[in-house]
Amino acid sequence: MTHAADIAQSYIALWNETDAGRRQAMLEQSWAKGATYADPLMKGQGHAEIDALVGAVHARFPGFRFDLLKPADGHGDFVRFSWGLGPDHPIKGSDVLVVEGGKIRSVIGFLDQVPSP
Amino acid sequence: MTHAADIAQSYIALWNETDAGRRQAMLEQSWAKGATYADPLMKGQGHAEIDALVGAVHARFPGFRFDLLKPADGHGDFVRFSWGLGPDHPIKGSDVLVVEGGKIRSVIGFLDQVPSP
Description:
Two copies of one chain form a homodimer.
Chain A: H1 4-16, H2 20-30, E1 31-38, E2 43-45, H3 47-60, E3 66-68, E4 73-75, E5 78-85, E6 91-100, E7 103-113
Parallel strand pairs in A: 1-7
Antiparallel strand pairs in A: 1-2, 3-5, 4-5, 5-6, 6-7
């Protein structure tokens, strides 16, 4: 049984880490080697590509942070949670994580709210 | 690109089908052979086990129906939607489907609302 809260916390911590060296260490510790990430806007496979996705979001939204919007829940090797980006969360989404051997194996992300253009 | 609305509609139709023979035909048509299903209460793999899960829910909630609570959305091979069970939806959940070659390959289900005991 996966500890949903711990997995979600480490996931959000990665997205909030602006230092690429520390991100690399976090990916080694908590993500499977060939981990996959896919949301409606971005996809990547492996630590280097996922690191680049996080870096791209920090470049686009400097100073913004991801927050969990409510406690994560999960069952078996699955975890889900909703998040908000920014000081006042103009962007919100919900992610489902598949965990394997305690590490994040894949991320399926969806957007719940995006700002009007 | 998966047609999220079509996939979700066929998924809900399976859960509303009380005839085991028709369910078998629907599984053949729309679900991959080794498809997996997992929610907090039940899991199964392959058409026969998934058919049995649906049958068990009809046995427990005779006459109840699943409804989509809002339009499905998706990207790539992923579809998500929320559903309600019953005439007045005392039980609600959200599912993520992974599609492969146009057929449902895996279902990751979560419960959003369950009745108080």
